[in-house]
Amino acid sequence: MVGYDPGSTCVSTAEAAAAGSASGFVTRLLVSPLDVIKIRFQLQIERLSSKNPGAKYHSILQAARCICREEGLVAFWKGHVPAQLLSGGYGAVQFMVFENLTQLVHSITSYGTRDSLVHFTCGGLSACTATVAVQPLDTLRTRLAAQGEPKIYQNLRHAVVTMYQTEGPRTFYRGLTPTIIAVFPNAGLQFSFYNILQQLSEWVVPAEGKKGGNVKNLVCGSCAGIISKTLTYPFDLFKKRLQVHGFEQARAAFGQVRVYSGLLDCIRQIMREEGPGGFFKGLSPSLLKAAVSTGLTFFWYELFCSLLCSLKTADGIARKER
Q1: What is the DSSP letter of 57?
Q2: Out of 73, 162, 275, 296, which residue is the most buried by the measure of CB atoms under 10 Å away?
């Protein structure tokens, strides 16, 4: 179970970090193509319209074909190295902090460890902590995934050096404000809805039918991801727009890139130039990615924790037998 459970053998802090990191690593490998497509949709400024499809990308399949034709299959894993470092680091910090916070709540308050409010608050705080820790990697991943051909950044090291020399150290934390604003409710809703759906499944499914626990974790995680992403999506788009601020090479991929003086200016310009629909560009691939990534994240985390607990139990039994 995700979160501290006083009635069962719980993973240690190090084990939670290891399971979270492994979960993030495997999930990122599988969902990278959807992430690249989502970023491309988020960064183009043209209005999306079926009557006047002036945008370069206007559907998931069309975007996938266009990227593959122009840049090759490997383009779907552009920025994959910083993305893997991002996912591994984010997963480790997030689940480690979440497990510790839920244990702390159990120790010093009267709230139950499966209370939805507890999971919402602890999930949001753990995600904010993880976000601050890995934000530079997220910015690097966005820049590498956004660039078309010819490339301006040849590899991760070249991107770090170039961005630092031309834009300064603060550029690695561009988009942090909308990220923090969005990540707290998004992660909080993920954890709370996952918890609610898990409890609901326990109520609906009889005890003798609970053998498919891994499938249940996957389904509950996917549903939680869709709900949370839909409610907080615009802030993810604002973050991506601000992260490519000053990234002139993105013009090669998107034709033009607007300059925003800050979060409020970004919101005003999108509303004025792209309409309300502009806040939800890339929502379809984002929801698809959220369903897959969130479901897989909880699936792999629960599986890795279960394996770790089994190994600890087996080791304990072996020691007693000696």
Answers
A1: -
A2: 296
b/e burial code for range 128-142 (CB count within 10 A of at least 16 → b): bbbbebbbbbbbbbb
> For position 320, what pLDDT does the model report?
66
136: its two tokens: 């530079």
Residue of 33, 182, 222, 16 whose CA lies nearest to 99: 16
The answer for residues whose C-beta is within 8 angstroms of residue 22's C-beta and 6 or more apart is: 88, 91, 300, 304
- pLDDT at residue 127 tops 90: yes
Q: What is the three-class DSSP state of 181?
A: helix
pLDDT (tens digit per residue) in 152-206: 788 888 889 988 998 889 888 887 887 888 889 999 999 999 999 988 888 776 6
Coil/strand/helix, residue 46: coil
DSSP H helical ranges for the chain: 13-43, 60-71, 80-108, 116-146, 156-167, 176-204, 213-243, 251-254, 263-274, 283-321
Measured from the Cβ of residue 242, the count of other Cβ atoms closer than 10 Å reads 22
By the 8 A CB rule, do 188 and 117 touch? no
Q: Cβ(294)–Cβ(34) under 8 Å?
A: no
Which residue bears the tokens 């074909």?
65
Position 190, amino acid: Q
Residue pLDDT, tens place only, 234-277: 888 888 788 766 554 444 444 555 678 788 888 998 898 888 88
Give helix 13-43 / helix 80-108 axis angle, nearest 10°. 130
Long-range contacts, stretch 109-114, CB < 8 angstroms, 24+ apart: 113/3, 113/4, 113/5, 113/6, 114/3, 114/195, 114/199
Sequence-ordered list of residues with C-beta below 8 angstroms from that of 307, at least 6 positions apart, any chain: none
- Asked if pLDDT for residue 107 goes beyond 60, the answer is yes
